[in-house]
Design goal:
Layout (H helix, E strand, L loop, with lengths): L1 E3 L8 E7 L3 H9 L7 E7 L6 E5 L2 E5 L1 H4 L2 E5 L2
Antiparallel strand pairs: 1-6, 2-3, 2-6, 3-4, 4-5
């Protein structure tokens, strides 16, 4: 099942399928290591849902909700 990273629940894991967004946002996501095929786990969500903290390639990364919307994931069961 595919869904965007902002819709993940805490503890959910998936693999990046596509990275969308405008030029600067897309480049920033790629620079942070969010590329197709990367495995991501959602670690924490702020009380209002923004920002979120993910584990990616062995490190923790915080993303804004506007950035997480641009990342399409394949959910791992």
């Amino acid at each position: 099942m595919e869904k965007t990273l902002d819709l993940f629940t805490v503890g959910e894991t998936g693999v990046v399928k596509r990275v969308g967004g405008e030029g600067k946002i897309k480049r920033r996501l790629f620079d942070m290591g969010i590329t197709p095929g990367a495995e991501v786990m959602l670690r924490k969500k702020a009380p209002l849902g923004d920002p979120i903290e993910i584990t990616l390639r062995g490190y923790e990364l915080s993303l804004r909700k506007t950035e997480a919307v641009c990342v399409t994931m394949e959910v791992k069961e």
